Amino acid sequence: MTTRRTVLKGFVGAAGAMAGTRINLARAQSGPIKVGVMYALSGVGAPVGNAFWIGTQIAAKQVNRSGGILGRQIELVVRDDKYNSATSVAAARELAGEGINLLIGGSQTVTALGLAPLAPELNAVVMIAGAAGMPVTHELFNRNIFRTVSNNYTAYSSLGRALIERYPQVTTWISVAPDGDFGRDSARFFGDAVKKYSVKSGGKQATVLDTIYAQATATDFKTQINAVMNTEAQGLYLGIAGAAQISFFQQARSVGLYDKIKVIGEVGNEIVTAKALGKNLPKDIWSVSYWNRGLEPFKSNPLSQQLYDDYVELTGDKSPPALVMAGHRTGMALFEGIRKAKSTETQAVIDAMEDMKIDTVGGPFTFRKADHQAICYNYFAQMQPDDVDPFYKVSQMARVDSAEMIEPATPGKAFDPNAVQ
Amino acid sequence: MIVSKSIFVLINGLASGMAFFLVAAGLTWVFGILKILNMAHGAFFMIGAYLAFSIVGSNPESMWSFLGAGLVAGLVVGVLGYLTDKIVLTRLRTVDYHYVLIATFGLMLFCEGVAKWIWGIDYFSVMPPPQVDQALKIGSSYVSGYTLFVIAAGLVVFAVIDTIMHRLWVGKIMRAVANDPWMAGTLGVNVPAILTISVIASFALAGFAGGLLLPNQTLSINVGSSFLLYSFLAVVIGGLGNIRGTFVACIILGVVESANATFMANFGGIAVYIVLAVFLVWKPNGLFPAQGST
After folding, report:
1. What is the pLDDT of residues A293-320, one digit of tens each?
2. Cross-chain CB nearest to B222 (options A44, A229, A255)
3. ipTM of this complex > 0.85?
4. Which of A184, A244, A245 is nearest to A212 (CA)?
5. A257 and A393 share a domain?
6. What domain range is A73 assigned to?
7. Domain map of chain B by residue range?
8. Which of A179, A219, A277 lies closest to B217 in CB terms?
């Protein structure tokens, strides 16, 4: 029997459904395209997070300058994740609560590990901008996340390969790395590649000594430095990052490590370390890098020059950190995904990005469909001290194609280093 | 090999301990006299480090310019201590310690914000002056001249503070004020002035330590926090407010930390907390407890 109460319920239900539809339509079709951005803008991760943020801002600015996407401008809504997983997750929830389904974050692994499992629940596309930790595209993989940098294995085995191919005379190597998953993995991948490519280059297999571990945020590395000084090592991989890396070099220099070690590969501080140390930089150090506008292949790439011009206009600074390119590339990948999907809806953007190929400042870029892992060139910058301001120079860029180095995709399963020997 | 490693542990431990002491000296001084646990101490250490860097640059030309920059940093931070005392600390002398912790924590955030505004977020580095910028080899241990300089600086600072506290009239008055400010006041001591002098001395020590320890660390907004934790631990183990206790505790912590890193590298940092736990059980009032402690 139809009662007044039943009819009233029906009206309320119908009104609610219509209101919901109206909200969805409003989100999908009008106003600027809102993109949530979560980087470390304060605390110890700030130098990294700010570089990413500048790059992503420039990407949005360039797209908006050329008329936007789907006739709409890009509007970035930024939150400070404070280099903290819980803060990053809270920021993602807040942004999703505001109706933003396109998110960029994870400038470091610690924040990416929080964001990755959250993406399906929020029905959001999450671009992981800088995290290299293996779980992101392995055991934590889901279709909503896309990693726009090389992972640990690809990046640090490429670094090992690049160095041993250039320094075959350096036959004994050692690593100093933080005592954690990232440090242990990156030192192992580096060392394995040194051994493998020393033989492939036609020489005798290089010796890789046991890794020396330290706390990631330690302030005193004199014990580890003394241990390195008492080995036969001539080559060093340094997995210590951030401010701690600069402290390491300050303490290493004062006991003569610079004279003993012929070449150093470092985890990715790049010109952050070079700026801080200036003419006290080690004489030959190679850094995981992304960009240097004055050197090939970037010098002849107009996208690179445009990025530099926009960087100078935005910041007034003329020495951009390479990480700006990684933030820019992440933004560009997402914006191109929206353009290709002709929609801002989550599933449409995911489908569009899975087989998308774009040109970036660093060359061709694509996502591997199986695990959404970026395939691109890995760059390494050779840095040396200099006599003129700013008292360091980037002498050359080396590159290794990650397509040659990448591990097999095993989405949903932990990465097994033994399977890639 | 064990002997050689042990020598290194001792030298490195002493250097770390003296670095902790240079920071902890001001912290324990102000706690001993005012009973204030200053959470902003590391921030003023950081300001001292930035000031010294601004004066001397990345490559000090001589030992005199390096020491001079540290002294100027100490003086300027001492003046900041005077202002902080007048604006903040005097208002905290009669309130519960919870408010003191919150207020000095807020002061720390304020200092970090101002430093970020002035010097930015980039990292900087400073090398030791040429006289101590050389490597020495003792057995199989590689030690820098600057490491020996830090040990010497810590010993000198301790000797000066200990002499002031136990041999000079001003130190004896300070101890009298610390023990019983009411009685000291009735005997004619200007208690507020003594308290203000103590704050200035504490802050000046923080600023001076910031200048002296620059070549060991990356200069960043967070440089103070790296030393502050160990300094707090040393103040607790040594006996709150006791300079001699803090000095001994700093040496213990430095040597333990160095031995941990050398002999148990896979368990980095754990030994210090074990030592802290042992001391809290064994000597809950510290190595040199204040008079009246049970």
Report:
1. 999 999 999 999 999 999 999 999 988 9
2. A44
3. yes
4. A184
5. yes
6. 33-151+298-377
7. 2-227
8. A219
